[in-house]
Amino acid sequence: MKNIGHQHPLSKVIAEINQIFAEIGFVFAEGPERELVKYNFDMLNVPADHPSRDMQDTFYLADAPELVMRTHTSPVQVRYMLDNKPPIRMICPGKVFRNEATDATHEAQFFQLEGLMIDKDISLGHMKGVLEYFFSKFFGEEVQVRFRPSFFPFVEPGVEVDMKIASQEGNKLSGKWIELMGAGMVHPNVLQVAGVDPRIYQGFAFGMGMDRLAVLKYGVDDIRLMYNGDLRFVNQF
Amino acid sequence: MLFSRNWLQTFFETPLPQAEVLEEKLTFYSSEIDEVTAVGDDMVFNIKILPDKSAWLLSHRGVAKELAVILDLPMMNDPLQEAPATFAETDTVTVNTTTPTCDYYSVARISGVTVGESPAWLKTALGAIGQRSINNIVDATNYVMFHLGQPLHAFDAGKLVAKDGVNNITVRSAKDGEEFKSLTGEEYVLTTNDAVITDGHTDTVLALAGVKGGVSSGVDESTTVILLEAAHFERVATRLTSKRHKLQTDASKRYENGIDKTLAQYGLVAGANLIAQVAGGEVVGMKSVGDEAITRRAPVSVSLERINSVFGLALTQAEVEIIIKCFGYEYTFKDEMLEVTPPFERNDLVIAEDVIEEIGRMYGLTHIVSITPTPMAVAECNSRHFYAEKIRHALMGIGFSEVYTSTFRANDIVKIENALASDKGYLRSTLVLNIKEAGERNISYRDLLGLTAVKIFEIGTVFGSQSEEFRICLLVQSGTSYKAKIDEPLVAEALTTLTEVLGVTPELLSNENGVVEFSLDALLSQLPAVTAYEAVLSSEAIRYQPFSVYPSVSRDIAMWVDESNTVGEVINVLRTASGPLCVRVTHLDTFTKDDRTSMAFRLVFQSNEKTLAGSEADEVMISVYSVILERGWEVR
């Protein structure tokens, strides 16, 4: 009997993300999942007394206070800027870790998508354009994006990004604004420590939960299903 | 924090817009709103105040100021507009601070108070934002905190020792092991990293600095003289104390967020006057230690060009000036160069980008216009992703399913300092164990999924004491028992396929009992560089369907059918006959002998509500047999 296998929804999502971003010149970058505190926090302008460094959010490694399981894909921004000169167009899909209780919408390990675009004149207008381009291709429908004021230590100004998928029949998520992720203009302190002169260059960065993209695209109701190896789940894809 | 519309209205002469309008304005120009609820004739907003703005926005005055700017509505009485008032100094109390974590401490003596119920307006105001009324004194201190953002604390002076009619308040570091009992009765053992407020004459702890008052000097019905504290405690020290004792209070939250020390001067006067108003009594005077100069913030400069380049806009100097004017801050704007001097409370306006953000959000971030990206080739391709995709699709082509499993294990090489659970205390150093477990779990789902063998793989990171690498692990479980075949032919098939696709034979790290693992990273060095990605084939839209958590039951049936019958026709008959409990009909085999055709099928039964008993499947099979009989087929 012939049977054809199934691709995990997250790797499907990663492949699609890469294809869409590659069309507009975004390089697929990577960094270690076990990361130096230096990259995960210090160089991202997260002050030493910031609550996100607290033990309840971050996994630390025994006998290695300089290491954490990365809490976001943002350290790859710093690593990439240290290794590459602007102009920069980069994405990084990758696994991240948070020391949080798990439930249907939270996992202690999940995937994030980081995006970074740096040049002499990159604005939030570019970010809006790039995100609308990406979401429209990813969801196969016209998607609108809007920004609201927000705050993250590694960006200034910081924004919250909402998206709205054009109305489609049978898609409960379409036609309404959905809160999606944090983003903003890369903080000059981050550019500076990563070797990019903030007097010459500027640009945006965003970080979104990829599990959430999969949830929105495929209607998955419990993200824990993504990580338990259950074929009753995987074989639907 | 909860904010009352009626309370916010006290800052304005003009009536504020309706709650829905306020909600929309605050959402798009200031902060996220979690919920808006009606409380009596009031509307209450639960606003998520962002950490960078918490030093001045965790108060009704702060939000009123935001509304004044957003709505371009003048504030009738901005309490922070004028220099802070003071009271005459009194010599009935002395104040010392010996800890660097307290850089300003002031106290006002109010005598002749009558502790009792708060007036209705005060109870209503606090009630709207979810604060229980305690008594007029405590309510007054809470009101001022939610009004201005400055925590206050009232001590009963009668419970302190006076020497020659003089009290002494001393702020010092706690002693190691020193005990403290809070106003609500909880007991804490302090460390030298905590700061405490003490009765200087007895060295008794009166309060845990910046966090909570103690029971020994609490206000009660017998209280007639109050010592009202308005102080400034260092943010990190307060946060650590609050964390150490798992005691976050409205006061500690405000210190943690770095409220400015100047605010204490406004708080003391507002608090003492309000107490005198609601509890009678008279302000005798005040005493303070520490720097009283109003915080002067450095001017921040930014060019019009910079502002426009961050948002991709083309605003004119006049347009930006209209926005900056609404803030009411000191500024100059000459030759397209803006210089703003932030007021003392705005510790978040330090660099040009901070001012750019203020202008952008008040202009409206929703007005940013998309700039469509230009297509271009990538500077380099990610070979790990490229080859992972190649391997993935090769394995899928021969029936493998991709799984993701946990990075954490109960035991391995690399230990997590603060694990979530004892079975998640280490990082995996191999994918083999995870894949074996996933394989075993899936054996019982084979009939349900119509599989003859469980064939899975994972591509993921593993960790050595120093190393981190991507590995690929695949498993085949084709036997009927849980024990895999030693020499699994399907594993050999998979490896042959990979070798064909990659042109290189992966060097196996392990190969036993149907499980094979190799390093993707090691393989990459042997593979050609990647110059272009392969196209991702777009699949039809997939919508995930929740599945039953209950086990399935299988029944096989073989029968002689008419020569003209196709497998599809027979499946349709079986499906109809077996009803809703039958979730899958799998064709097992077909053969012809002596001009007769035999077909065999496996029927899989499952309920969404319970574990099916074998007898329930058998009952369905009886009706299936009778349908087969009616068709003139013959069960073998």
Automatic annotation (TrEMBL), chain A:
Keywords annotated in UniProt: Aminoacyl-tRNA synthetase, ATP-binding, Cytoplasm, Ligase, Magnesium, Metal-binding, Nucleotide-binding, Protein biosynthesis
Native organism: Candidatus Kaiserbacteria bacterium RIFOXYD1_FULL_42_15
NCBIfam families: pheS
Keyword Ribonucleoprotein carried by entry: no
Signal sequence range: none
GO MF annotation terms: ATP binding; metal ion binding; phenylalanine-tRNA ligase activity; tRNA binding
Reaction(s) this enzyme catalyzes, per UniProt: tRNA(Phe) + L-phenylalanine + ATP = L-phenylalanyl-tRNA(Phe) + AMP + diphosphate + H(+)
Gene Ontology annotations for the cellular component aspect, listed alphabetically: cytoplasm
Pfam families xrefs: tRNA-synt_2d (PF01409)
SUPFAM superfamilies in UniProt: Class II aaRS and biotin synthetases (SSF55681)
Subcellular location: Cytoplasm
Annotated protein name in UniProt: phenylalanine--tRNA ligase
EC number(s) given by UniProt: 6.1.1.20
Automatic annotation (TrEMBL), chain B:
Pfam families: B3_4, B5, FDX-ACB, tRNA_synthFbeta
Domain B5: residue ranges: 295-370
GO molecular function (one): magnesium ion binding
GO biological process, one term: phenylalanyl-tRNA aminoacylation
Taxonomic classification: Bacteria, Candidatus Kaiseribacteriota
Assigned keywords, A-Z: Aminoacyl-tRNA synthetase, ATP-binding, Ligase, Magnesium, Metal-binding, Nucleotide-binding, Protein biosynthesis
Source domain of life: Bacteria
UniProt domain FDX-ACB: residue ranges: 548-636
E.C. code: 6.1.1.20
Designated name of the protein: phenylalanine--tRNA ligase
Cofactor(s) this protein cannot do without: Mg(2+)
GO CC annotations on file: phenylalanine-tRNA ligase complex
